[in-house]
Amino acid sequence: MAKFADEFIIGANYWPRNHGIEMWKEWNYDEIKSEFIEAKSLGINVMRINLFWEDFQPKPDVISEEAVKKFDELIKICHEVDMKIAPTFFVGHMSGENWDVPWREGRNIYSDSFMLRYQIKLVRFFAERYKDESAILFWDLSNEPDNYVKAESRHDAWLWNYVLSNEIKKYDKNHPVTLGIHQASLLTDNNFYPEDLQEGNDFLCMHAYPIYTDTCIDPVNSIRSTYMAPFASKLTQAMGGKEVLLEEFGATTLMMSEDIEGNYYKVVLYSLLANESIGAIAWCFGDFSVGERLPYNSTPFETQFGITAVDGRVKKAGLEIKAFSEFMNKIEYKDLKHKKCDAAIIIPDKYYSALFVGNDYTPERNFRILLNSFILAKEAGIDVELVRADGDFSKYKMLILPSAYRKGHLNYDQWVKIMDFVKNGGTLYVSYDGISVEGFDEVFGVKTQYSMVPKNETVSMHCEELGIDLNYKALKFNKRLIAKPTTGRVIANDDENNPAIVINKYGKGNAILVTYPIELYLSYMPDVYKTDRSYLIYKYAKELSGIEYNVKVESPYIEVKEFDYGRKTLVFFINHEDIDIHTKIRISRKTKNNEKIQDLISGRQINLENFTIEANGVVAILLEKGV
């Protein structure tokens, strides 16, 4: 199997500007080669290519010789330009519209034996013919297949993915196989589960767009939106247990300025690198001149997702890809080693559905709480990952259980593992959304009285110890806990003078309880992170856990990521907000007065004592080992 460890994938999804999805019917060798040369000049090392199903398999037992000939010409272009491609099979969905192969006749592509037989025929043909082709980076089974045909069960989706993946691998030992799933697999129960797909796929993919989900209600260049794609990658990795490629991301300049879109690209590229993605593929290479055609006629905003304009001008997003590629060429990617994470957010055990729960318990709800918990952890300076509820907690110092629900979130045996984690010295943070389990009161040092929805439209908390006043917009169905302290110490009360934050010593560890589902509240509050200081609760939990980092900054908007890099430490500072940040870099060693270190990205000297990072800016520095 090909390995990506030596190179971070920097790519673009491709259709020709002047032809769009009619690429194979209106084949133009010279135009495509010219656009591949443009992409190469931007530092792109792979183009994802869609094999429109009707063009390559017009009849079940016929693979189009004409289409294959054009694909061979595409391979020739790759060798001439030094570009790799990621061919994607069974493309029936594209940019908001669907096209069907006429011979399907309503059969389900995942479970119908006739359809499986002839899909196997197509992938086998390509696997046998191109098994030794160096221009191919990996095979992708399909593009967001649930948008094209719904799988009737997760087992049908698993079967289809597993059978086709293994059919390719039977003949092709050189190229890995994946499937292009999208955020619908995280926001809905569409039957394409990362944990199922990992059985057949060599790595997992995710397509993530903040503009396409109400879980991101802020501008794309602000903190919630810029963390969304890295978070989706981390969540997919935790659910599926394999590396993740962010195979589609981007935005359209019909919805925002080129500068804002470009800043979004810059932050996301570096944050994906910081959060263990194996690459990023932009949607898409070029704006389209064929707006009168489907799919663009019915989804007109799709015409300007390109990193280049119709006339070939490089848009700011393209310039940011080029700058990122130039930076990656300065370092040895294979030598970057992620440091171990000491903190993890627990994924609800029944993420997609659970029996006998309220209508509010949905995958979107779980995505919301995890995303906003991830943001709070990052704001608190915590390098955090996600872990399954049935996973191994022993390697962590801190566990985060946000907006914990009464059922579906945890099984009792998983809760017992968490109790043991705290007894043995770990720190546990829990915010309440109905969780009811034996031992809860003991862990948090409280006596549960009852739960109820808040009486008022807003919830307020005052915490003198942390110096914060917090305000949230309450939700209609989500409950808060009324509890009396026993061994727990109340550090914050709500506006009715009930305990809002309780700290308790339990065994050798510490437990922190917030009596409201604050992560869920935050998920519905637009642009809230400009003023909200809830992250200070997470920061307090981090300090109780004894988690320390060599490098940190005070601003909650700056993501700090340390890599072991040979005999040195490579540190990134990524500003996830659209405001300039003036701060001090704190390093766990003595620094010389006005010490200056070079920013590897800009080449400028920076002063650790007097440091400004521009809106949506990124800085990278090298420090001696041990720092």
From TrEMBL:
Keywords: Glycosidase, Hydrolase, Secreted, Signal. Residues 128-251 form the Glycoside hydrolase family domain. GO terms for molecular function: beta-galactosidase activity; mannan endo-1,4-beta-mannosidase activity. GO terms for biological process: carbohydrate metabolic process. It catalyses: Random hydrolysis of (1->4)-beta-D-mannosidic linkages in mannans, galactomannans and glucomannans. Its EC number is 3.2.1.78. Transmembrane segments: none annotated. GO terms for cellular component: extracellular region. PANTHER family: MANNAN ENDO-1,4-BETA-MANNOSIDASE 1, PTHR31451. This is mannan endo-1,4-beta-mannosidase.
